[in-house]
Amino acid sequence: MIERHYTITNEQGLHARPASLLVQMASQSKSAVMLVEGKKEFNAKSILGIMSVGAQKGAQITIKIDGPDEAETVSKIEALFNSNFGE
Amino acid sequence: MIICVPNEEVRGDVFTANIYVSAFRNYYIILKTILEVIMTQLVRTELIELNLKARERKDAIIELTGRLEQQGYLFSKDGFLQDVFQREEIGNTAVGFGVAIPHGKSPEVKQTAIVYGRSELGIDWESVDEEPVHSVFLLAVPEEKASNEHLRILALLSRALINEDFRQQLLEAATSEEISELLNEVTQQKVIES
């Protein structure tokens, strides 16, 4: 299992558009992808799961990836966060 | 709170002054509560459409926007529609489970609102999963409030919609009152929690 910590830097937080980009990435993966905020875990393959977090700018979140293609998935997700979701 | 006591006669009457202070405080609490209720009652029965006529995404958005305009939430209907359609072009707002959440943060919105529309036959949302949409939530958020308010409402709705029982209750509710109660309960609960 791979874990990565991120701080949300989007001006508007993890709203619907970045959430859907993350879902697209996570859904392509054969691994389980979870988004953790505080003690709560959300399924990153579900748009409702990600939007449920309501992560605002500055929020600290953790992405957990567990499965056969976790290394590949983590690099894709990392790129997404680094690009600030294209915003 | 500072109470000015003008002369000695009045100064003796501390009791009366206390009553004034507590009356003021109660008044303030009541006003605050009313304001909070108004702020969190995002879904009014007038903003609920139990039987959408539209069978396509664009028509459904137009139909629901009509409700908003009728109830005086918009400066310009066309301007708002343009913003919502633009958002749909960036990415489809179907979220699975037969639910779509189109949204417009727009300078044309006077006050935040959620319009709910239900369709028994289903609406073609042109989504990847090709699943027909039976529940549509149209969010209208004024632009200046957009950053937090918009995210907060999306999060509240999403948390509720993950729950299958909740989705079922929405589809089975017989009246607009039932639906607005269901939705306001969800949003108010979370407001108190946070």
β-sheet strand percentage of chain A: 25-35%
Radius of gyration of chain A: 11 Å
In total, how many beta strands of chain A? Answer: 4
Spatial strand sequence of the major β-sheet of chain A = 1-4-2-3
The stretches of 5 or more residues of chain A where confidence is low (pLDDT under 50) are none
Can you characterise this structure?
The complex is a heterodimer of chains A (87) and B (194). Chain A has 87 residues and is an alpha+beta fold. Chain A has one domain (2-86): Histidine-containing Protein, Chain: A, CATH 3.30.1340. Chain A has three helices and four strands, in the order βαββαβα. In chain A, strands 1-4-2-3 form a four-stranded antiparallel sheet, covered by helices on one side. In chain A, a hairpin with a 2-residue loop joins strand 2 (32-37) and strand 3. In chain A, 38% of the residues are buried. With 194 residues, chain B is of the alpha/beta class. Helix content of chain B is 53%, strand content 16%. Chain B has helices spanning 8-11, 14-40, 57-70, 77-90, 146-162, 164-172, 176-193, and strands spanning 48-49, 94-96, 99-100, 103-106, 113-123, 133-142. In chain B, strands 1, 2, 3, 4, 5 and 6 form a six-stranded mixed sheet that branches. In chain B, strand 2 (94-96) and strand 3 form a beta hairpin. In chain B, helix 3 packs antiparallel against helix 4 and helix 5 packs across helix 7 (176-193). Chain B is elongated and about 75 Å long. The model of chain B is unreliable at 189-194 (pLDDT under 50). The interface between A and B is medium-sized, with 18 and 24 residues.
Topology:
The complex is a heterodimer of chains A (87) and B (194).
Chain A: E1 2-7, H1 16-28, E2 32-37, E3 40-43, H2 47-53, E4 60-66, H3 70-82
Antiparallel strand pairs in A: 1-4, 2-3, 2-4
Chain B: H1 8-11, H2 14-40, E1 48-49, H3 57-70, H4 77-90, E2 94-96, E3 99-100, E4 103-106, E5 113-123, E6 133-142, H5 146-162, H6 164-172, H7 176-193
Parallel strand pairs in B: 1-5, 3-6, 4-6
Antiparallel strand pairs in B: 2-3, 5-6
Helix pairs in contact in B: 3-4, 5-7
